[in-house]
Amino acid sequence: MARRAQPERTCVGCRRRAPASDLLRIVAVEEEADLSLRPDPARRLPGRGANMHPDPACFAQALQRRAFGRALRVAGVPRDEALAEYLTRQPPRPVNRPGEGR
Ligand SMILES: [Zn+2]
C-alpha cells in the first residue's frame, strides 16, 4: 500500500539507513577559526548537516573513519568535544517521562 515514506538518512557512524527522526543532525560551526561539531536536535541550524544515531558507538565509528569532515564537506577534522559531551548526557534511547515538558 502507498504508505507515505518517512525521509531516510544514512548514519555517518554505522552507515545504516534510518528514519531522519531517529537520527541526530550534526552541523559544523565555526568557532575562533576552528570548526566544531554541534548537535542540532531541533534540526534548525543552517548549513550542511550530517546524520548520526545519538549513540556513542556510532560516534566512535564516525570519528575513526573521519566521516564528519566528508559528510559536512569541511577540510580537516572538526573538533568534537561539544558533540561528545552532548552524547554522554543523552540516554541511549529517548525515554518518555510523563509529566515533563514545557
Ligand atoms: Zn548509527
UniProtKB/TrEMBL annotation:
The UniProt entry's coiled-coil ranges are none
Q: One MF term in GO for this entry?
A: DNA binding
Cross-referenced SUPFAM superfamilies, in alphabetical order? YlxR-like
Note the InterPro entries from the entry: YlxR, YlxR-like_sf, YlxR_dom
- Keyword terms, alphabetized: DNA-binding
Pinpoint the YlxR domain residues: 9-87
Tell me what this protein is called: DNA-binding protein
Organism of provenance: Micromonospora sonchi
